[in-house]
Task: inverse folding
């Protein structure tokens, strides 16, 4: 007797350009608060009567809030609907900006920073999960490169929008304008982000097969079916060691990246003599270059480059960027600020593209939220420490030199971690890893 065939999961329809743009905006909405604070730093310091170190603590609170929430929100991203998560991202950012707009005291700015954290914490798990469910495997790495460039698109937008609007309407007008942008994009997202039912019906990842995923996962196994082994511990409860390598690299690269993002405009104004608007343009240059090169790094991953190789190149290039800032501060050479800003955008701003694409090549669809949450915790911990330590060193020494040396040390640690990841990948190449080899 022939049994009736079981209905197969619905094949994924071709994802739309509109969805890609919304994912890009979702990545950019979270950090809009801190980029706005950073590029308006001279104005905010004057308005609140605070020091550079206190400015750094505002951004540190954002990322500390994000780090604390990352693991929990990463796991929630595996079960919450994508549209609910979009509300958390865009709505949370808008609320933080509104609170900041009407803040008259420093502690209210801190409250706004706390509110901004969860929106950033869930942005990577949310967008990674949508991509792994809605986008064919062959296109995913390219989509990751584009959506990760949303962070730098946000930096570009903030660098041009906040100083210009703040000069005309003040900090309140600029922050409210940015909040309105978040609300409008959230409304648009309702039309293009797939519903929970539509995402659940997609085949989970023509999926992990052939892309270097954990070999205990295969397309023939339902995402809801537990993985069993000879031991009492399910293999799906353990994340691969490569996830922790990626999280460590995210931590130290994030420390240097965010210290630079937050203090580059103030460094340009205080030590090189730039105007407020020109300091914002320096940050915007990093954003423009970062958008282009995040896509470029994603394409290198798509072409089959190993993540460890790309991360090593990124870290070495980032060392050149911070060297340019050190020499600029010592000599007062404005041209080196532009060189450093461009190198910063070309290199370390692309680290998260490589890391997220690496995660997608090693983690099955039903675990991508948890893995992304672990990576996000490392990244946001680095994001929190970078501005905090650089601001403290500035207040202690009266210059940015010691802060740039701190950033240099962080990038040197990243070089060591990339080499360790490369060694780990070599050991596993003959067994678990093929295209997704670290």
Result:
């Amino acid at each position: 007797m022939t049994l009736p065939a079981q209905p197969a999961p619905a094949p994924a329809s071709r994802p739309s350009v509109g969805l890609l743009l919304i994912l890009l905006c979702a990545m950019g909405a979270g950090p809009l608060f801190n980029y706005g604070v950073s590029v308006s730093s001279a104005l905010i310091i004057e308005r609140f009567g605070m020091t550079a170190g206190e400015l750094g603590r505002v951004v540190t609170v954002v990322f500390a809030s994000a780090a604390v929430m990352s693991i929990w929100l990463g796991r929630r991203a595996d079960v919450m609907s994508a549209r609910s998560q979009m509300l958390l991202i865009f709505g949370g950012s808008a609320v933080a900006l509104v609170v900041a707009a009407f803040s008259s005291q420093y502690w209210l700015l801190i409250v706004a920073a706390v509110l901004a954290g969860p929106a950033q914490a869930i942005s990577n798990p949310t967008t990674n999960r949508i991509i792994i469910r809605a986008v064919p495997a062959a296109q995913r790495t390219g989509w990751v490169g584009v959506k990760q460039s949303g962070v730098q698109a946000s930096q570009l937008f903030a660098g041009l929008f906040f100083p210009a609007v703040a000069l005309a309407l003040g900090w309140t007008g600029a922050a409210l304008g940015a909040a309105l942008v978040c609300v409008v994009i959230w409304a648009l997202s309702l039309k293009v982000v797939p519903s929970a039912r539509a995402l659940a019906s997609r085949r989970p990842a023509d999926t992990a097969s052939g892309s270097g995923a954990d070999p205990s996962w295969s397309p023939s196994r339902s995402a809801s079916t537990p993985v069993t082994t000879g031991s009492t511990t399910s293999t799906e409860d353990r994340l691969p060691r490569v996830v922790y390598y990626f999280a460590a690299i995210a931590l130290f690269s994030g420390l240097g990246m965010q210290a630079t993002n937050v203090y580059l405009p103030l460094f340009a104004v205080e030590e090189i003599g730039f105007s407020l608007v020109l300091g914002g343009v320096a940050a915007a240059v990093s954003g423009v270059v970062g958008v282009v090169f995040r896509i470029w790094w994603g394409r290198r991953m798509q072409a089959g480059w190993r993540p460890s190789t790309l991360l090593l190149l990124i870290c070495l290039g980032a060392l050149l960027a911070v060297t340019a800032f050190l020499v600029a501060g010592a000599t007062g050479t404005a041209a080196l600020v532009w060189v450093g800003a461009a190198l910063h955008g070309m290199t370390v701003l692309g680290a998260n593209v490589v890391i997220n694409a690496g995660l997608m090549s090693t983690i099955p669809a039903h675990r991508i939220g948890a893995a992304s949450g672990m990576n996000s915790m490392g990244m946001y911990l680095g994001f929190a420490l970078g501005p905090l330590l650089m601001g403290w060193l500035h207040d202690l020494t009266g210059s940015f030199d010691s802060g740039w040396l701190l950033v240099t040390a962080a990038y040197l640690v990243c070089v060591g971690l990339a080499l360790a990841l490369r060694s780990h990948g070599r050991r596993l190449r003959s067994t678990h890893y093929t295209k997704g080899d670290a």
Notes: The mean pLDDT is 82. The chain is about 75% helix and 0% strand. The longest helix spans residues 137-192. The radius of gyration is 21 Å.
